Amino acid sequence: MRWWQWALGTFVIIAAGLAALVFALLPPDIAPPPRSDMVISGVTVVNPGAGRLANRTIIVHDGRIAAIRERRADDPAPLCPGCFALPGLIDAHVHTPPRIALGNQRLFALLYLEYGVTSVRDMGQSEPSVADLAADLNAGRIVGPHMYRCGPVLDGDPPGWPAARRVVTPAEGRAAVDDIAATGADCIKVYNEVNLPTYRAIAAEAAHFGLPVLGHVPHPVGLLNLSNFEAQHLTGFPYLTRPLPPPGDDLRAEDLLAMSNSEIAHVLDITAERNISLLPTLANSELRLIASDPRRFPPTPGARDLPAFWGPVWGALVDHPRTQQQITRQPLMLARIYAITGRARLRGIDVLAGTDTIMPWVVPGESLHIEIARLSQAFDSNEAALAAATAVNGRHIADGQIGILAPGARADILLLPSDPMRDLARLRDWKILIADGRRYDRATVDAWVAEYRAHFHGWLYSGVMNTIVGVVLRQFQSTAAAKQP
For residue 95, is it left (φ>0), alpha (ψ between -120 and 50) or beta? Predict the structure, then answer.
């Protein structure tokens, strides 16, 4: 045998072995149920913020709500006797794992359904595969929610988001919007360092395509130069008069805590006048403390469904309070964010519910339940918090299509045996979930999640992925240490 034949044979064997290993690391395929027409009788229809109708029948046809009417004697028996029908929940701020985190895109999608989340909005893709995932989800080829997406984040120099597209001139900003719009994206996200001329070009080009612009308030732009914008994490709020944070920082806790009541009122006036809505991600700020001190702030129950490697990744690579001073200050900052968020709603400003999933310990689906509970604290209203995760999110993401139970809307319906307005914890107890006209029974989804949990915590997946992640993290830490002066 010639040497090249031996080399080729060896290469083929190694490649086949690696392919087999990758295949073994992927979770089992789950076939989504087909869309089906259905008559859901004898339910109380609840549209948070818009009232309720008792003893109603919802007719679903071709993935849409065809009608909602009073129950009739000839209607079929209830699918869920005495249940409350709520619009499917919407997470307005998620990030999707990269494909290299083998199987996690499908895991995250399944976990959203486990918690009744039927729509998500990816707010800055980690890589182009997110567009493929969204296409598969939206076509019903993968079990999970409907995914809206913004494409890559647009940032200036230096970019603060690892996968951002750098735009520093108006021409670059327009070209980026053109490229993103061509992929079928639903929104344009900007980040901390986009300069004012480039931002104006981005906003004008986005308006041409009918795409909303949202994201972090860019430091060179500021709140006073924004309008019709969705601001995340209260970025920009402290910086009307005080010095901006250094590049790489979006919002310093000490700056937010230093704001006076009159300063907050002034900023909220500007926010309302310029039609700026808020996406505070309260759960994100709270859950990052788990990475700071997991003994003092233990992981949530939902964390058991994630592969073990996420803990070390979050601890090493993602920002979270690290010093004792920062850990002590975090609850104070949270209290301030709650207060501002509550005042914003009373001022008539839209507050959206989003979690920033993929940030430290922000578990898909579960974190939206935490977000709703924290918004209820901020608003002093369960109904207003549920409206944020349904009607308000729906208006901003796909008006009239999601977040509401009404004729013409997508058939995204949670059927619950008890009233979630009385106790938000009851959201977890849904019995039947309709997502895009596909029926999911609770026992079936629970069984799928248990199967995925066993896979991702099995000896093969854990052994291989934990080893690979450990090697990568050690290399990263070694490189970072070498760069220190």
Answer: beta
Cα–Cα nearest to 344, from 265, 401, 403, 256? 265
Name, in order, each residue with C-beta under 8 angstroms of 373's C-beta and a sequence gap of 6 or more.
385, 424
Strands 84-87 and 64-70, sheet pairing = unpaired
Give CA–CA dist 109/27, Å, rounded: 12
Strands (E), 49-104: 52-61, 64-70, 84-87, 89-94
| Residue from 351, 390, 388 nearest 84 by CA | 390
Give SS3 for 445: helix
Q: Which two tokens stand for residue 295?
A: 């003994």
CB-count burial class (<10 Å; 0-12, 13-18, 19+) for 46: buried
pLDDT number for residue 107: 98
| Residues contacting 434, CB < 8 A, separation 6+ | 38, 40, 60, 88, 411, 412, 413, 415, 440
Strands 146-149 and 117-122, sheet pairing: parallel
Summary count for the chain: helices (H), strands (E): 15, 16
Kindly report, residue by residue over 181-222, the tens digit of the pLDDT: 999 999 999 999 999 999 999 999 999 999 999 999 999 999
pTM score, whole prediction: 0.95
The residue among 303, 308, 268 whose CA lies nearest residue 469 is 308
Alpha carbon distance 185, 347 (integer Å): 31
DSSP string, 241-261: TSPPPPTT-S--HHHHHT--H
Helical residues (DSSP H) of 308-381, grouped into ranges = 310-317, 324-346, 366-379
Residues 147 and 133: beta-carbon distance below 8 Å? yes
What's the CA gap between 106 and 8, in Å, rounded? 34
Measured in degrees and rounded to the nearest 5, phi and psi for residue 55 equal 50, 55
Q: Average the pLDDT over 9-19 and give the result.
A: 49
